[in-house]
Amino acid sequence: MSRVTEIFGSMVFNDSVMKERLPKETYQALKRTMNEGRHLDPHIAGIVANEMKNWAIEKGATHYTHWFQPMTGVTAEKHDSFISPGADGGVIMEFSGKELIKGEPDASSFPSGGLRATFEARGYTAWDPTSYAFIKDGTLCIPTAFCSYCGEALDKKTPLLRSMQAINKQALRILRLFGRVEVGRVDTTVGPEQEYFLIDRALYEQRKDLLYTRRTLFGARPPKGQELEDHYFGAIRLRVSAFMKELDEELWKLGILAKTKHNEVAPAQHELAPIFSTTNIAADHNQLTMEIMKKVAKRHGLVCIFQEKPFAGVNGSGKHNNWSLSTDTGLNLLEPGESPQDNAQFLLFLSAVIKAVDEYQDLLRVSVASAGNDHRLGANEAPPAIISLFLGDELTAVLKSIETGQPCDTVDRTEMRIGVHVLPSLPKDTTDRNRTSPFAFTGNKFEFRMLGAAASISGPNTVLNTIVAEELGQFADELEKADDFTAALNTLIRRVIREHKRIIFNGNNYSDDWVEEAQRRGLLNLKSTVDALPCFVADKNVDLFARHKVFSREEMVSRYEILLENYQKVLHIEALTMLDMARKDILPAVENYIRDLSDTALSKKTLSPQASCTVEEELVTCLSALCSCVYHKAQELDRALLDAHAVEDTRERAARYHDMVFTLMQELRAAADEMELHTAAKYWPFPTYGDLLFRV
Ligand code: ADP
Ligand code: MG
């Protein structure tokens, strides 16, 4: 046991290391910077940098890097060694305060959505001192934000940090109204549950679709899928268990609170959940976790796949984003309290979330939109793309009583009034509660379940923080003016419930009835990325982000461009991969089988004119027809791809990819999958679903 406590955080320049190694005044100055978001004094930075370097060298590091999160969705790093020429022809190891605080990578090859012309291609990275530096592969990594030279955000961390400031500001205004003067800061906290697939590396490498796109573009369903529900929480196989053990250790060394691991619903699918932390740190740690998972998998002859829907017919992978608000005094603001006063405060924060989710359904939907996640949301076998909010029957009844002034059935027939009652005890989330809701209250936090497994959690949390900040700000505006605070609070909460209760839905989100019901309620159903993305730059949303200084209009337009472009590029690569596989692998393989069948029939006839050749004949007829279908679908797809690619307007082009290219891809796949079912195993040119899902 002591081993875990020893290795935990051993590769992190964390608080205890800083306290131990830095001069007292330096440590205190740095802490002030971290707590209050101040600028770091260059002199102090120099001392911190030097000590960081000494520590890193003791741990075997030779290089340092500013570790950042450009719009590619993965992390970026450029390594510089500490060496500097010494007097005697040797080298000394150096790392200055300037190098710690600011880096200047050439930014021209990262997506910027037109924000940065190449003549001003330089960007800069700036240390986020609230996220600890760490050592990975002999390199000291410094978590940084990445901006253009004019200060426009080119990454995912900058807006997240800005949104945390926005919600901190507004939440503090509310807390002051409740007389909580002792609170100095409010942070949002996140615990992202990460789902993934583990596939045998040797099999994976035989499939171009997995190699190029990380999802299978072809593949007939195996005889067995997930219908027996025997994989979920099942005993973990030895090879997977060895992977998980090593993974835990690697993550612990980096100070990542890896807590829970288990098998998920689909065969070969698993989950890892950390203990929650402050949002920007949770975002950094989640990126790091995914990176380490890939590396460790490789060492075990496996591949870790985060793609949102790598296999048709079984569950895709998501990333449940558990989100809450907590104060520096240790209070969870989404936890019902024990006094009427605490409950009034809880209900106000709850109302802010309800109103935010209703008014900004579009932004939440956009925040999880991607080509990959389109297969999970609003597709055939997945939850719908409709945003609604689950509160559970008890809390819903309480809200109803507050709204109507009628007694509440579930609470001994008392009428609930703000600031008068202690809330009835609400059951905390247990796994048998509503798992179909995209946005569920789970006792002391909300769980946003629409995120795809591959995405950074920064985008969705930037949206969540900002929309809730907006509502808290509006509430504060109203309540700060009130003469009778309790009366004003009552009025406000009642109004919010009345106007926004349509977003609350406790039933089965996967049912067809809900889709109709949601439409009657006027809720949005943005089925695809192409439907969703334009909402991002709607005036109301541009104003919102500008008001809270999270995004400027230019930054939003650039992000919109990047997302649209990315969508098409992903589809383009997938379509080309399909063409390649269909023409170069599948058709030739099936033609071989057809030839052998025909040869067999011929030899049979030669030997014995009466021999029956029905099997060969029927198979040849069936497969020949399918070959012809696959061939023609491929031709059509090829043309559609050329057409779509040639469209000038980005949005129009994205729509063309969605309507034409995507549809043909599905048709091509259907024909090829049908062919797989009739082709002898030894002819099929790559590993099947059965091999991939059941051979780890
Ligand atoms: P499950 O959803 O599987 O039933 P839990 O609800 O216990 O499991 O926890 C899921 C995740 O929620 C964990 O990562 C946990 O750390 C996180 N979590 C718990 N409390 C909070 C909180 N206050 N803020 C953010 N995340 C939290
Ligand atoms: Mg959960």
Query: How many strands appear in the DSSP assignment?
Result: 17
What is the helix content?
40-55%
Gross morphology = globular
Bound molecules: adenosine-5'-diphosphate, magnesium ion
Q: Give the DSSP E fraction (strand runs of 2 or more residues).
A: 5-15%
Number of helices: 22
- Alpha carbon gap, first and last residue: 30 Å
Structural class: alpha+beta
Low-confidence stretches are: none
Task: Sketch the major β-sheet.
Answer: 8 strands, antiparallel
Q: Give the overall average pLDDT.
A: 92
Alpha-carbon Rg, integer: 28 Å
Question: In summary, what is this structure?
Answer:
The chain is of the alpha+beta class and 696 residues long. 49% of the residues lie in helices and 12% in strands. Strand 4 (83-85) and strand 5 (91-93) form a beta hairpin.
Please give a handful of descriptors for the protein shown.
binds adenosine-5'-diphosphate; 22 helices; 17 strands; 7-stranded mixed sheet
Commentary on this structure:
With 696 residues, the chain is an alpha+beta fold. The chain is 49% helix and 12% strand. The protein is built from 22 helices and 17 strands. Strands 10, 11, 12, 13, 14, 15, 16 and 17 form an eight-stranded antiparallel β-sheet that branches. Strands 1, 2, 3, 6, 7, 8 and 9 form a seven-stranded mixed β-sheet that branches. Strand 16 and strand 17 form a beta hairpin. Helix 3 crosses helix 4, helix 11 crosses helix 14 and helix 13 packs across helix 15. The longest helix has 55 residues. The radius of gyration is 28 Å and the shape is globular. It starts with a helix and ends with a helix. The model has no long low-confidence stretch (mean pLDDT 92). It binds adenosine-5'-diphosphate (ADP) and magnesium ion (MG). Magnesium ion binds next to loops.
